[in-house]
Target: Putative 6-phosphofructo-2-kinase/fructose-2,6-bisphosphatase
Amino acid sequence: MGTGASKNPDSSSHGSEEREDQAGGQLYVSLKMENYKLKGELFPHVYGSVPLVGSWDSSKALSMERESTSMWELSFVVPPNHETLDFKFLLKPKYNNAPCIIEEGPNRLLTRGTLQGDARSALFRLNNDEVLEYRVFIKADRVSPFDLAASWRAYQENLQPSTVRGIPDVSINSMPEAGAENGSSASLELDLEHYVVPAPTTSANSGLVYAANMTETPRSLTRAGVFSNTDGSGSGPHSYKDGGVPVDRPVTIKEMEVIVPDPSKVYSGSGMVESKSVGTFSPLQKQDGHRGLFVDRGVGSPRLVKSASATTFSTNLKLDSETKNAMPAAAGAVAAAAIADQMLGPKEDRHLAIVLVGLPARGKTFTAAKLTRYLRWLGHDTKHFNVGKYRRLKHGTNQSADFFRGDNPEGMEARNEVAALAMDDMIAWMQEGGQVGIFDATNSMKNRRNMLMKMAEGKCKIIFLETICNDERIIERNIRLKIQQSPDYAEEPDFEAGYRDFKNRLENYEKVYEPVEEGSYIKMIDMVSGQGGQIQVNNISGYLPGRIVFFLVNTHLTPRPILLTRHGESRDNVRGRIGGDTVISDTGEIYAKKLSNFVEKRLRNERAASIWTSTLQRTILTASPIVGFPKIQWRALDEINAGVCDGMTYEEIKKNMPEEYESRKKDKLRYRYPRGESYLDVIQRLEPVIIELERQRAPVVVISHQAVLRALYAYFADRPLKEIPHIEVPLHTIIEIQMGVTGVQEKRYKLMD
Model:
C-alpha cells in the first residue's frame, strides 16, 4: 500500500507521485473487535485525533456497529497519504452515565492503512479488576473513485426525506432481495436476547411460582401465637388488637375449632332436594329461580352482621345508599346479570363456589388458577382457596404418604378439619362481598363433598369441577413438577425419595376415590392436552356457569408463546392524536421490518403460527412485511373507540370538552367517550379473543393497539381491572407471554427506542 514515491527530487517527479495517489483511489479501512464473553451493556467505541474522530472527548466517540454476536466493526474511507490516525478503543455503557472504560496501553497509530507497532489485543480493566480482552483486526482495501461514486449514487437513490415528522429522517424504499435483511436500519442482531429489557415487577410470571402459594392466605390460621405463614404469600394484612389476635376472628384456640358436620346426616345424593338446597332444584325452581346469574360486585350485597358463632351469619338486607347505587366493575352482559341477580336471584345464587375434585397430579390447582384469572378479568370478584396451603400451615410440610391413607382416622380428621377451615374462610369472604370462590382440594370422597354442601347450604351455590386424566405421560410430568415445586418436598433433598412418597400418596387416594355423581357438576376428562377429550355437564344453567363451561372447553396446557405488540408508530402518534386510521410513519415502517425479522427468527420452527391484527390499517401495514404465516384481522382488536373525540389531542379535549376531560381523569376504567367506548367495553368485546388464544396450540403474534393490549396483558398477568388503563405498553416493544404447564411467564424485547 505504498504511495509510489520516487527518488528523483525534481518537481515533475513530485507531481507524478500526487497524480498516482489520486488515480489509485482511496483506502477503505475496517477496524474490528471480537469478544465471545460480552459483559452486560458495554459497547465498543473509537475515539482519537483528526481526521478519524477529531476529539479525545469520550462523549464524542464513534460507536462501532455490531456485525455478529461477537464481532464489532467501524469502517471509514481515507486517502492513501492520510495523516497518521492516533486513536484508542473504549467501552461505553448503553443505558446510564457510568464512566467509560478505556483500553490499557499506548495509543494506536494507523499510517497508510497499516497499524504501527506490534499487533495486540485491546485490554479493558473493569471495576472489580477483571480484565476483558478483545481481539483486534485491521484491514485496508484500495477502492477506486468510480466504485465510491457508484455506491454513493445508489445510496442517494434509495433514500427520501421524511414527510411526517418535519425533520430530516430517512427511510429505505427499495425492496430487498429475497432472504436478505430489510436494510441495515431494520436488521436485527443474531442473538435476540440482545433486545431483552426488564419486565415490570407486576409482570406475568406465575410460571416461576408454585401455583398453590399464590392462593388466598388462610385467615383462620394466621393469628399471632398460633400459626405462621411460612410461604410468604398472602392477600394483604389483617388488623390486630391486644396480643396480635385479628379483631374479626374468635380469640381462643378452643373457640377456633371447627365442628365438622356428620356426613351421615347430610346429603344422600338422591338428586331432588328442597329449595334451600344448593345441589339441585325441582323443575319449578329451575324455571323461576335462575334468572339472576351470579354476577355480584357489590350490587345488592347484604351487609354482614356477625353473630357469636364463628360460622353463623345473619344478614341485614336493608341496603345503604352507597350499595344501592354501586355498579359492578364490568360492562354489558356482566352488568346486566349483576342487576338481574340483585332483583331476581335467590340469595344463595349471589355467590358461587367452584369445588375442585380429582386425584393428585391431575392439574386441579393449575385449572383453578386459570379460572380465577379469567373470572377476575371479566369483573367478577374471585378468590382461590387452596386446602393444601391450610394443611401445611396447620400440620407442617413433612407429612408422609401415611398421613393421606383412607384407613388413617387421625389423618382423615386432620384433613377434614383444614378443609372445613378453608370452606369457613371462603363463605365468610363471600358474606363480606366476594362473589366466586374456587375451592381447591382433592375432595375425592363423597363424605367430604357432603360436608362442604352442608356448610354452603343457604350461603352459596356449589358446582363441582372434576378433573380426570388417563394419560400416563401427563400424570408423570405433573408428578415430577410437583416434587420440584411443592413445599411438601422442599426439605426432601433426594428427588427419588420424594417421588416414591408421592406415588404412595397417590395410591392411597386412588383406593378411596369416588367420582362425582351428586349435585351440579362439570367433568373434564382428558382435556388438558388440548387434543380431544370430553366435558360432561350436569344441572348447570345460568350466565356465569355457562361462561365457565365455555372457558374450560377451550383451555389446555400445551406450551406455546403469545407475542403482543403495538403497531409501528403512526402519523397520528407523531401528532399526538387519539384514534384515527392513519398509516404508519417512516419510523413505523422501520419497526415493521424489524418485527418481520424478529418473527422470522423467533418462530422459524413454528410454521403453524399465525398473525392477528385489527382491521385498522396501521396494524395491517405493520404486519405486511411478515411472510410465511397466515394473517387474520379481528374487529375485536380495534383500538378503543374515542367517539366524538376521535382524531383530537388530549390538549384539545381539555380545552374544548373540560368536563369530559375531568371525567376521564377521575375514572379511566369506567369512563366512556361520548358515542364511544370505555375500557370495560373493550374487555367485553375481547372475551372471544381470549377464548381463542386459550384454544390455540400454536404461537400467535397479536399486533394491536395500546388500550386493547393493556386489557389482553392484564388477563395474562392477572392484574386488577382498576390497573388496566395505566399498564405500560410502549411502542416498538414485544411482550412474549409463554403459556405452559407451570403457568405464565413473560419476556420483553425492545427493538427500537
